[in-house]
Each structure stands twice: as C-alpha cells, then as structure tokens.
Amino acid sequence: MNKGRVEAFSDGVFAILITIMVLELHAPEGNTFEALKPLLPKFMSYVLSFIYLGIYWNNHHHLFQVVKHVNGKVLWRNIFLLFCLSLVPFVTAWMGENHFSPSTVALYGIILFMCGIAYYFLLHALIQLHGKDSLLATSIGNDFKGVISVVIYAIGILLTFINSWISLGLYCFVALMWFIPDRRIEKRLE
C-alpha cells in the first residue's frame, strides 16, 4: 500500500489536535497583564503539549521519509498512535485547569507513556515490514532514546504523588531530549 494517505491523514489529525488545544485558551475578563496570571498554568500546559505534539509530528515526518510502503499492521499501529495523541488536549486542559495537581500530572504522564509505547509499536511494525537491513532499521539502531523516554515517563508517573513538580520536570526533560529533531534518519538520507 502507498504511504501517502497515512501521511496526509496523520498530518490532518496533528493539525486538529493543536487547534483543539488552542481553543481551550480563553481570553481573561480583565484588560491588564494581572488578569493573565490565573491563566498561567493553562498556558504552561499548552506550551508543553504543543511541544510534544510538534516532536511527534516532526519524528513521524522523518520516519515516513524512509518508509516505502505500509500494510494493515502499520495502519493500525499508526491509528493507535493517533488515538493516544488525541488524548493530549483533554489531559492538557485538565492539568492546566487544576494547577498541576498530582492526579492530573499522573494522567498526563500516563498519556505520554502511551504515546511513547504507540510510537515504538509503529516504528517496529515499519522495521518488520521493511526488513532489519533497511535504511529505516539501520537509521534507528537500538532506539535507546525512545526506550529511555518511556522509562522516564514511568518514573515520572510513580513520582507524581510524591511531588508533581518533579514529574513535570522529568516530562520537560524528555521534551528537551527530543526537541532537536532526531537526525538519525536525516544523516542516512544525506
């Protein structure tokens, strides 16, 4: 099967998710900068989630640069990734509205964990389809960065009820790790 429809559909979902998140940001009642202060937790949640969606879109784009074709397994794994990502706007709004309370930060971590696992499943379905000697497989290698990200999410989830700010720090650390696009595939294409 051609990969074009997967890319187009995925791009559309990413665009919709970002749009949904920004629609959760409402203008304050007042007309001073002080009126913005209560919105700071929501805005911080939005920025972190926007960065995460950007990271996933960027890596999805790079991944599909070396993909030649897809099959049914890849389609379902991609849908699972998009499902997990579709939960980001909900948990972003909940976390921001509740000023990073432990339960909301824990659920945010669970969603990030699910997204990481879903991306891992998609990646390995594509490697299985294209072969262990494919450009994709040799570019990704052992995917240490992907695996360690999921481990950090799990640690963050566990630490949430001790201190939710430590968990948020861990989630921000993973985002920083991925903020610079994964160049493994780009290097092979050059």
Structure described in brief:
By secondary structure, the chain is mainly α. It has one domain (4-189). The protein is built from 9 helices and no strands.
Would you mind describing this structure in some detail?
This protein is mainly alpha-helical and 190 residues long. The protein has one domain (4-189). It is built from 9 helices and no strands. The chain has helices spanning 4-23, 40-65, 72-86, 88-97, 102-130, 135-140, 144-159, 164-179, 184-189. The protein is globular and about 55 Å long. The relative contact order is 0.13.
Distance between the termini: 26 Å
Amount of beta strand: under 5%
Shape: globular
Helix share, percent: over 70%
Average predicted local confidence, pLDDT: 91
Main β-sheet description: none
The helix-strand sequence is: HHHHHHHHH
How is the topology of this model organized?
Blueprint: H1 4-23, H2 40-65, H3 72-86, H4 88-97, H5 102-130, H6 135-140, H7 144-159, H8 164-179, H9 184-189
Which key features would you list for this structure?
single chain; 190 residues; mainly alpha; 9 helices; globular
